Amino acid sequence: MPKPVVQVGDDPDPSEWLYISEEMRRIDQSKPYDAKKACWVPDEAEGYVQGEIKATKGDLVTVALPGGETKDFKKDLVGQVNPPKYEKCEDMSNLTYLNDASVLHNLRERYRARLIYTYSGLFCIVINPYKRWPLYTLRVAKMYRGKRRNEIPPHLFAVSDGAYVNMLTNKENQSMLITGESGAGKTENTKKVIAYFATIGASKKDTEGKPSLEDQVVQTNPVLEAYGNAKTVRNDNSSRFGKFIRIHFTASGKLAGADIETYLLEKARVISQQTLERSYHIFYQMMSGSVKGLKEMCFLSNDIYDYVNVSQGKITIPNVDDGEECMLTDVAFDVLGFTQDEKDNIYKITAAVMHMGGMKFKQKGREEQAEADGTDEGDRVAKLLGCVTDDLYKNLLKPRIKVGTEYVTKGQNKDQVSNAVGALCKGIFDRLFKWLVKKCNETLDTKQKRAQFIGVLDIAGFEIFDFNGFEQLCINFTNEKLQQFFNHHMFVLEQEEYKKEGINWAFIDFGMDLLACVELIEKPMGILSILEEESMFPKATDQTFVEKLITNHLGKSAPFMKPRPPKPGIPAGHFAIGHYAGVVSYNITGWLEKNKDPLNDTVVEQFKKGENSLLVEIFSEAAAAPAEGAAPAAKGGRGKKGAAFATVSSAYKEQLNNLMTTLQSTSPHFVRCIIPNELKQTGLIDAKLVMHQLTCNGVLEGIRICRKGFPNRMMYPDFKQRYLILAPAAMQAEQDSKKAAEKCFEAIQLDPDSYRIGHTKVFFRAGVLGQMEDFRDQRLSKIMSWMQSWCRGYLSRTEFKKMQSQRTALEVVQRNLRKYLKLRTWAWWKLWQKVKPLLNVSRVEDQIAKLEEKAQKATEAFEKEEKLRKELEALNSKLLAEKTALLDSLSGEKGALQEYQEKAAKLTAQKNDLENQLRDTQERLAQEEDARNQLFQTKKKLEQEISGQKKDAEDLELQIQKIEQDKASKDHQIRNLNDEIAHQDELINKLNKEKKMQGEVNQKTAEELQAAEDKVNHLNKVKAKLEQTLDELEDSLEREKKLRGDVEKAKRKVEGDLKITQEAVSDLERNKKELEQTIMRKDKEISALSAKLEDEQNLVGKLQKQIKELQGRIEELEEEVEAERQARAKAEKQRADLARELEELGERLEEAGGATSAQIELNKKREAELAKLRRDLEEANIQHEGTLANLRKKHNDAVAEMAEQVDQLNKLKTKAEHDRANMYNELNNTRSACDQLAREKSEA
């Protein structure tokens, strides 16, 4: 777990993981490169490989591949290669050629060189190294503290420090968005960011014996990881939830607290895991037994396989000690201020979730009812949760449901009970996790004064799997919104710089590129809206949901598509959405159930009354949460639906909207985490996997947007220095660097659309800087050729002169040598050789005397010079010391001067901005003053018109009285219907007295009541639709009011016109008032009729419920008749047996030859008994048939009466709908008239 970095010994040198070595740079720069022939082409294995262009024919390019093979490619598949100087570029937005191949190549080469961080414009891309390198030590933190981004290599700390400095400098909240797929390193990078902020924001004052705030901030990680992280196929410590952590700072930059917000915990993992995965870490930590007494308190055995919920996949993680992790979690609880009782209750509830997986049930005979199959695990669950075992099983097997104002019990079969237990496990764990987050927030909520915060968002990246469900839609929708936010933010900054530089540029909102997809998901009648509507409808199914989606969006919304054929063995998708990262097919199986997220309310009520105080708290908070969430809606107007029926999608959408609102109020910084390969090997890049992530993470989308603008730019002095050789005469003649740049472009005849001239910089489109480099290289090539030829000529001329001098000298030597050979035999020459030395003796003495005199003078001069030298050396040393001191002072003054100059520039800019704002404010103030005077005059005119409206109000009162009379007649009809209901109630009471098996009838009644409740839910949905209609009418009224404002504005503009025009405007205003009153009156009528319609529909529901109960009674009587028929059949069988016995006796008598008188009497007696049985059976049949006929007659009469009442109600409903349609027509006519008046007014 990360901690505020503490220096222990010397940290290792991180240079080899941050900087490119000189040797590596030399090798990269010396690579052969031909800008016209080098190219990138697609490759199945490597993604892209570098080839050499051999020929071009139309749209086909022939390319020689590295293996010697030659292939043809389409021209749009061939990408240009960047010059060697961009090899392992730290910021890919500076690349000359921005294409997918160049991005992949740059990332691959940097990763192979163990450089895991790379910038791409606003992005910081980090590739998981799968190793722990010394990149996050205190030494590295100090390297990046207070440094600018361009002064140091790319690093997560550079982004973090940039956010911290911006917060302190601009007094603005910051955010860091860290995204990526599972296993990419999001969680680890998030922890490093938090540790960095905890280190640089730590306070020096520590309280003895009390954990510091920075320690508490960091210690939230073990708790959240224990309850929110799990092993997956791709990641041993995968966060199964998203989180947004706000780290609050004081005005001086010290920590002032923190809070955490979580999103979409994967609840399904609590009760089911795949073969190679496991559930949340806390279950296995508790089973380790490292915390003394924990297993005994929680009734845990030593075998993890005793607990089905957590043993369906792997139970251990390589190189991870669950016991040690459990101790860290327990210590983290203590640091965060959890009491011992709270810790015990947390462990007990967690263990109860494990034990609940072992609760067994079986079917009870042939009944639709389950029963407990042993209560051992149930006893443990009840003890841990502080409730009664019998009540727990009773509430699971026969939960009580509310129908109207009454509660009835409802039997559950085995599958229903098992599903209910699983839902409780997920619900308990989810609420416990949210409570832990709340508790952490309370601990981190210090009372220090907060100035700004830095938010760190750790959320799953875009997901495209073979099977995509509800969770993937939520995650992808979140990333779609974040990408829209990034696109908008990225080019807002970019285009603001264009504006500041004075470039002619039409503003483009690139966030609109994704608007169609966002609206498809979140707008009214979008996917989430339809999902919520179907979740409210009791008889909705997955099939009806799909049909409604297809009806509303297929062919009407561009991003909504038909799904692609699935892979073998994968369920087919029901629809597809075209996201920015690609087309994703979604399977909607089980979405309605996931969205409703039902729980057994009876068991929940039992938990609220239990002895486990934490369990009571988490379920009480869960019940109160929807009401709190509904408060903002109530503030803004009418709510769309009650808080009691909040869905998962609506809660998530509200969370996401709040998150986006928060992010939009901050200055964002983006970090994109990448998985290099699935094998977890360092240095290996899987091209297809990386390109997929770059697409999903929006890196390639950002590059696409970059290419539409001017991604490359240079300061004018730098441009002049580098490209002076392209037009030296013209550029040297200009002292202004900006004009020199313009002269350069004129000289090389560069396309004006490919560059822009700003105030301080020159901007280039993508690839143009490469053309400039080509021009420069060509010019350098010519200059080098000329220089080489001049050097060769100079060297040749020098050699030629040397050879000429040697020739002349050789001729002189030869001539002198020939003369000497002639003279050496001449006698006079020999005499001269002997006499010459004797002639110089006297001259030598005179020369010696002169030399001695010179030597004495030179000695005296030397002594004077030596003395003067020593004096000058002393003076020089003194002057050097003074110079050094002055240089030190000068350097300090230069730094201060630079700071003062920067401050002065900022203050000047601020002063100019404030002066501009002051001027704008003064202008607006003058305009507002004029508008106020005009409004005052208009008010006087309107007050005069109010008196004319009173008569209209009297007419409206008469209409209201008429409506009240209609209401009275409707009330009379309702009273008649109530009398009929009372009559039916009496009939029902009589039938109820005849019931024999009350328990079975109650069960059937409960099912019927459930259907009635579904009907009520349906009516609630209709009510919600009517309320929505009312909201739309209110919106229409707002539009009418807005139109009124426009008309009044037009009226003010034409005040100087003729008096006739003023009178016409007054008439129009009066007509508009009348129309608004009419709209309000119609709105009230619609509300009244809606209420009446709802009451009538409730009455229909009650009558239909009574019909169903009567039908149930008839079915019971028919069952009784069937029983009587079976009894009759049995009697008939007995009669047949007696007849058969009688025949046997007759045969015996005949065989005996003579019957005794006693036997004859016995036969007569049996015949008489048989006749009596026949008569009794016939009488019973006649009686039962009569009773059945009476019941059928009563049933038919009741059904007929109910049908008449239903027909009457349907007529009333039809009439109400007809009235409503007429109202809408009147409203449309009114709007048309208003629009016509507005047009006439505007034309006037």
From TrEMBL:
GO terms for cellular component: A band; membrane; myosin complex; myosin filament. Pfam families: Myosin_head (PF00063), Myosin_N (PF02736), Myosin_tail_1 (PF01576). One of its GO terms (molecular function) is ATP binding. Residues 656-678 are annotated as: Actin-binding. Keywords: Actin-binding, ATP-binding, Coiled coil, Motor protein, Muscle protein, Myosin, Nucleotide-binding, Thick filament. One of its GO terms (biological process) is locomotion. PROSITE patterns: IQ, MYOSIN_MOTOR, SH3_LIKE. ATP binds at residues 180-187. InterPro entries: Kinesin_motor_dom_sf (IPR036961), Myosin_head_motor_dom-like (IPR001609), Myosin_S1_N (IPR008989), Myosin_tail (IPR002928), P-loop_NTPase (IPR027417), SH3_Myosin (IPR004009). Belongs to the TRAFAC class myosin-kinesin ATPase superfamily. Myosin family. Muscle myosin is a hexameric protein that consists of 2 heavy chain subunits (MHC), 2 alkali light chain subunits (MLC) and 2 regulatory light chain subunits (MLC-2). This is Myosin heavy chain. It comes from Aedes aegypti.
